[in-house]
Amino acid sequence: MKIQHYLLIPLLTLACNFTLHAQQDDNLFPEGAFEMADTNGLPEGWSLPDKNDRPWKAGAVVTLEDEEGGNFARITTVPDYPGFYALGAEIPIPDGKTTIRISARLRAEMEIVPGDWQGFKVHLGFATEAGAGPGSKGFTITNDKAAFALQNATPDWTEMEANVEVPPDAKFVCVTVLVGSMLGTFDIDDVKIYAE
Q1: What is the spatial distance between Cα 165 and Cα 175, in angstroms, rounded to a whole number?
Q2: In this structure, what are the phi and psi dihedrals at residue 193, rounded to the nearest 5 degrees?
Q3: Cβ proximity of 84 and 154 under 8 Å
Q4: 182 contacts 109 by C-beta, under 8 angstroms
Q5: What is the pTM of this model?
Q6: Which single residue of 37, 74, 132, 147 could bond 140 by disulfide (Cβ 3.0 to 4.6 Å)?
């Protein structure tokens, strides 16, 4: 039986779209694309520090910015306290998964200032229960380590990726974005989380 060529193109298009959709569904954190905003215009699915709950009463300012038809998050540090926790998220880990793969795009225009550590970092840690992740009062992340970082001005988008082992009792992976002893703007986009 012959398939007419005018039927073949729609079938191939449908198959490609189905495959692409399946690949996108593997990403556990669609909010990492920064395309969704909450009612305050801040990134949906992310927690931000409450400056009133911190002793220095300052910290970074986070905004959603548009570029070439898509959004990204911009972290702008302030001179009073040029860095620390800027963004965080807590994502459930499917049962039986042993490795988390994280990827993201980063760029930064920064000036180093005196401090304990310098850098624009993305950390991964783990929690055994909901509500224990970054930005919560019951902050109890374990195995928290830098997945990747920029430590110099990087004006062009740089794609980075890391794999981290999941502790046996972990139920949530916690992503924390930190800026240390830097003044400037720090952009992040396309944060993707895969469990393997």
Answers
A1: 14
A2: -120, 125
A3: no
A4: no
A5: 0.82
A6: 132
